[in-house]
Structures are given as C-alpha cells and as structure tokens.
Amino acid sequence: MRLVLVGPPGAGKGTQAARLAQRYDVPAISTGDIFRANVKGKTKLGRQAQEYMSQGALVPDEVTNAMVRDRLSRDDVFGGFLLDGYPRTPDQAVELEGMLDDNGTALDAVVELVADVDEVTRRLLKRAEIEGRVDDNEDVIRKRLSVYAESTAPVTAYYDGQGLLVRVDAVGDVDVVTERLVGALSAQ
Ligand code: B4P
C-alpha cells in the first residue's frame, strides 16, 4: 500500500496516519514530524525549517524534497508507506512521481481529508491549549489555511485528474473517520 494523506491543517492527517499505518502495517512518514524533530534537535535542517514553520509558510520545496527522497530510500518503505503532509505543492507532487518511478513503483491512492475552516480552526486552537505548538495561534492558522488553498489545493486537483483521489469526510469521531477511510480505500 503506497498512500498519500492530504488535507488542510487540523483535518486529522497526523491522527489518522498513525491509525492507518498500523492497520496496513506500513511506516507513516510525516514531513511535519520530521521537521519538528529536527527543530527540537537543533540540526541544520531544523534551523532551516523553523523560520518557515513558525510563520505558517511552507518549507522550500528543494529542502523538503531532498528530505523525503532520503527517507524513501530506506529499506522499511519497500513494502509500502503512508506519506502524511507530503506532497503539498505541485512541484513536490512531480518530484515524488520521479522518486517512485526511479524505484519502479507508483502511488495506490491519495486520500483527501475534508473538513471546513471553522472545524479545523477550532481543533487547532484546542491543540494550542494542550501542546502549545508555535504555529497553532490564530494568525498563523489563518496563514496556514490560505497557504493550503493556494499551494496544496492544486495538488488534489492533479491527483483527481489521475484518478487517484479519494475524498473522505473528516468531521466526526476519530474512530468513525478511520472506518470511513478504511471503507473508502477498500472500495477503491
Ligand atoms: P503538519 O505537521 O503537517 O501540520 P498540520 O497540517 O497542522 O497537520 P497535523 O497532522 O499536525 O494536524 P492534524 O490534522 O492531525 O505541518 C506543519 C508545518 O510543517 C507546515 O505548516 C509547514 O511549515 C511544514 N511542512 C510540513 N510538510 C511540509 C511539506 N510537504 N512542504 C513544506 N512544508 C511542510 O490534527 C490537528 C488536531 O485536530 C489535533 O489536535 C487532533 O487531535 C485533532 N483531531 C484530529 N482528528 C480529529 C477529529 N476527528 N475530531 C476532533 N479533533 C480531531
């Protein structure tokens, strides 16, 4: 199973990626998590990513693409993977296609988690209270949502054109959303 999860910030990508990875026994690869781990570890990549993330901007494509290329070269992805939060721009989508071509593989599906702006804003503000993430304040959330509409919506259109896009309603109980995802993927 080679899957991509897309959706606006707060749609539940990280939440559902962990569950689907367990269900399909593939590694979940979250570009956001990798960046956050590097920020925490004060690495060069972390220093590069931090200024963009704290402003709600995307980390430049060349940095993100190189990081994903490296991650997808490891042995644990041979049997499949779930990419959470990548690709997020048309350039990243084209790069990913190249990486998979090089390995003689291709994506099985791209799942879009659909949730409206009010719902995702409410979730992220709630997470801010619990986790205190620097990019979960109202101004930065607004910026992240506009970046999503501008840069990532074309990515879903691109995959829709390839017949790979599966849209799933991401509003509701976490378990219910997981069952919707599994149902949609098995019907694919
Ligand atoms: P991400 O880490 O991907 O952050 P996100 O879009 O907010 O999604 P996340 O996975 O954290 O939240 P989720 O929806 O699961 O990216 C952060 C930053 O990293 C980006 O802004 C960018 O700067 C950089 N970045 C990452 N990937 C990049 C790329 N490819 N290119 C360039 N830059 C990149 O969950 C949100 C909250 O909702 C949680 O608190 C969760 O508990 C809750 N929730 C989940 N499901 C729910 C449900 N069904 N009901 C109620 N609450 C729910």
* Main sheet attributes: strand count, strand direction, barrel closure: 5 strands, parallel
Question: Poorly predicted ranges (pLDDT <50, ≥5 residues)?
Answer: none
Principal-axis shape equals globular
- Domains, number: 1
Number of strands: 5
CATH class: Alpha Beta
Q: How large is the share of residues in beta strands?
A: 5-15%
The CATH homology group name: P-loop containing nucleotide triphosphate hydrolases
Distance between the termini: 12 Å
- Average pLDDT: 96
Give me the strand/helix succession: EHEHHHEHEHHEH
Spatial sequence of strands, sheet with the most strands = 2-3-1-4-5
- Give every kind of bound small molecule, once each: BIS(adenosine)-5'-tetraphosphate
Structure description:
The chain has 188 residues and is of the alpha/beta class. It has helices at residues 13-24, 31-40, 44-55, 61-71, 90-102, 117-131, 138-161, 174-186, and strands at 2-6, 28-30, 81-84, 109-114, 165-169. It has one domain: P-loop containing nucleotide triphosphate hydrolases (Rossmann fold). It is 59% helix and 12% strand. It has a five-stranded parallel beta sheet, sandwiched between helices. α4 runs parallel beside α5 (90-102) and α6 (117-131) packs across α7 (138-161). The model has no long low-confidence stretch (mean pLDDT 96). BIS(adenosine)-5'-tetraphosphate (B4P) binds next to α1, α2, α3, α6 and α8.
Features:
188 residues, alpha/beta, Rossmann fold, 5-stranded parallel beta sheet, binds BIS(adenosine)-5'-tetraphosphate
In short:
The protein is α/β, with parallel strands linked by helices and 188 residues long. The chain has helices at residues 13-24, 31-40, 44-55, 61-71, 90-102, 117-131, 138-161, 174-186; strands at 2-6, 28-30, 81-84, 109-114, 165-169.
